[in-house]
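Quarterly update from the structural biology core.
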Amino acid sequence: MTSRATPDLPAAALDALRQAYRAALADLIDPQDEAERLERAFQAVVAADDAGVLEPEAEGVSLGLFLRLAALDEADRRFPFADVGRRLALRGEHRSLLFQLPRAQGDAGRRDLLGQHRAWGEGAEARAASHPVRSAPRPKRSRPRVGLVSSDLRIHVVGAFADPLIDGAEAAGVELFCYSAYPGPADGFQQHAAARAAAFRHLPGAAPTALAQAIAADAPDILIEIGGSTNHNQLEAMAHRLAPLQASWLGYPHSVGLDTIDALVLDPHIAPTAPGLILERPLLMPTSWIAMSPGYFREDLPLAAKLPLDRKGVVTFGSAGSPYKYSAATLDAWARVLAAVPRSRFLFVRPEGGSATFRRNIAERFARRGVAPDRLDFAAVRNAHLPYYGEIDIALDTFPLTGGMTTCEALWMGAPVVTLAGKSVHERLSHSLLTNVGLADLSTETLEAFVARATALASEPERLRRWRAEGRRTIVEGPLGDLAQFAGDFFRLVTGALDAG
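Predicted structure, tokenized:
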């Protein structure tokens, strides 16, 4: 948020602006009429910021709003990367630091991003030190006790990827404890996990110290935070030393920022390619850091019988990734691909597609490369996006923050993904996935290579047809589909790290 002089307006008018943007931002949590709510919130924030009355605690959600509507230049002007990141960290707003990942540019940005997370971690550790928890004695056990911490151990993306560990813990010889502070009632996933795990501690709405005390009472040998900074997270519980080995996995594609997290579970493909880009020591899985649970990636999800190319005679590129991941370089690269493939189209599958501001900002970016607005399509849907992969021949990835679940979904639904891999963990998510399903050649290392590879793939219809027909079998028969092997490798990795000290 840039410093602005308050305009010469009556106090009542300034107060009305404050109330308007507060109400509009609070209104965003309701998914009904989402595009209209986004528009109202955007206009209210612009007016409040121009008037100099946008309050510090609104910076994070306002930044996210600007990114979601692809107002990238405005976001940079109003919320400069380095300044806002430091303020978010010092205010303890870890969830908003997620919006900084796609904004980090080059090595300087990567270092600054790491510093922002560490600044948050120092604050969290100070707060934890002021509210110490008492650890129970840790007896000798025949099986190591492993704790998974996330309020998203429910019907959620995190639950979908945690499922293989919950099902595989007993065979791997570990005693699994699950911890959640999700404020809602138990759902089917939680009931399944509670039946499979040694214990499922559900403490609805618990504060970090209360959750930490409950974990300490169980005295786990290994504690793994898997939820990242999603809603209802309790990352600050991990600022306490609750287990001899504390690790992070899955939920956040970057170092969380805590010195009390010793390790980050990765794989050889997702690990940083330069030193000093994570705070923790890397623990590398043999092949993939995740597996795709059939509870979510179901074989019965229908695939389109024909490619859009075969039905329409033109190639359709597309993305269902969240627009907060868009960067100026992402949109420019996508536009360059469309400009290079005659008559091709791009489909945006996102609820933001119903917003006039979003569509206008996207059209302006593509127009800079000579792509007319009538080649852009928008499907304004939420939680009903999978069938739209039947309208996409090739999915184009975001960068530097690449796809995780989005890439998995695209591959499962028959659309190969072209990505640009960078140096840091968050820049290599899709690279790992593509490598593990035999599509490593679709992972590129430069902008020019990204554009060239996507353009070339558009002229390979037989390959597109083959992936749509055989991709699921390839996934199931490879590392992403071998759930038992994944769980065994995972628990051997973390228990081995515990034994190594």
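The mean pLDDT is 96.
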